[in-house]
Design brief:
This protein is α/β, with parallel strands linked by helices. The protein has one domain: Rossmann fold. 27% of the residues lie in helices and 27% in strands. The chain contains six helices and eleven strands. It has helices at 37-51, 69-78, 94-108, 127-135, 188-194, 235-244, and strands at residues 2-7, 9-11, 33-35, 57-64, 82-87, 112-116, 139-149, 152-159, 162-169, 172-176, 199-203. The chain has a nine-stranded mixed beta sheet, sandwiched between helices. A two-stranded antiparallel ribbon has the order 2-3. α2 (69-78) packs across α5 and α3 crosses α4. GO terms for molecular function: electron transfer activity. Residues 23-211 form the Electron transfer flavoprotein alpha/beta-subunit N-terminal domain. Keywords: Electron transport, Transport. The electron transfer flavoprotein serves as a specific electron acceptor for other dehydrogenases. It transfers the electrons to the main respiratory chain via ETF-ubiquinone oxidoreductase (ETF dehydrogenase). Pfam families: ETF (PF01012).
Length: 249
């Protein structure tokens, strides 16, 4: 079975995002970029499944600028066998991303798609669900545990009330949550080996997909600065402040 793992290039999670001077978005020029952390978890899970014999090949795919090749090389250093870059300079919404991913899925015919539940740049948490709908495949979102059997995948999901276990017929789409695994570090020998692994580049325009945006960003602003907290000397003083200043009791 082949596993397809979409990965996204985002501002590194250790970097404090800065809003552009014109308020049109988040500044990315001269900013450290890396693989979306949820997607790292997806790559790790796919590689583990291959190591267990549940999969024969792991293919990483990214949609974005030429520099996204770097995160694909990282995915291959972690263990992915090859990679595909759908190249575009456009800022794409989840619907457009899902459409492009569907064309790659149709071409590659994987038995399983594993991807991060959301990207940390927009937190939309929508691409996996849209992709599953367009493919008409079952989906297991917010995966805490993934088990693959003969013709099925069992997903333990994190839901508001606890955990839910679903069994899906393959092919299927699975989105990963934080507690699924701990991604491995790419070692220097594997980083060197990743340079020799195949990385195919496809122009997004060549896939015949409507990439027109459906949303318009009016402005992007930083959240207001949080007021400093205060210490109280007793429970009575706390109750007084909650009643007289915060007006919550």
């Amino acid at each position: 079975m082949k596993i397809l793992v979409p990965v996204k290039r985002v501002v590194d999670y250790n970097v404090k995002p800065r809003v552009k001077a014109d308020g049109s978005g988040v500044e990315t020029q001269g900013v450290k970029m890396s693989m979306n952390p949820f997607d790292e978890i997806a790559v790790e899970e796919a590689v583990r499944l291959r190591e267990k014999g549940a999969a024969s090949e792991v293919v990483a795919v990214s949609i974005g600028v030429t520099d996204a090749q770097a995160i694909l090389r990282t995915a291959m250093a972690m263990g992915a066998d090859r990679a595909i870059l759908v190249q575009t300079d456009l800022v794409l919404e989840p619907l457009a991303v899902a459409k492009l991913l569907k064309t790659i899925v149709d071409r590659e015919e994987p038995g399983l798609v594993i991807m991060g539940k959301q990207a940390i740049d927009d937190d939309m948490n929508a691409t996996g669900q849209i992709l599953a709908a367009r493919l008409n495949w079952p989906q297991g979102t917010f995966a805490n545990t993934v088990t693959v059997g003969e013709g099925w995948v069992e997903v333990k999901r994190e839901v508001d009330g606890g955990l839910e276990i679903v069994r899906l017929a393959l092919p299927a789409v699975v989105t990963t949550d934080l507690r699924l695994n701990e991604p491995r570090y790419a070692t220097m020998p594997n980083i060197m080996k990743a340079r020799k692994k195949p990385l195919e580049t496809i122009a997004a325009d060549a896939l015949g997909v409507d990439l027109a945006p459906r949303l318009e960003t009016v402005s992007v602003v930083e959240p207001p600065a949080r007021k400093a907290g205060v210490k109280v000397s007793s429970a009575a003083e706390l109750v007084e402040k909650l009643r007289d200043e915060a007006k919550v009791i």
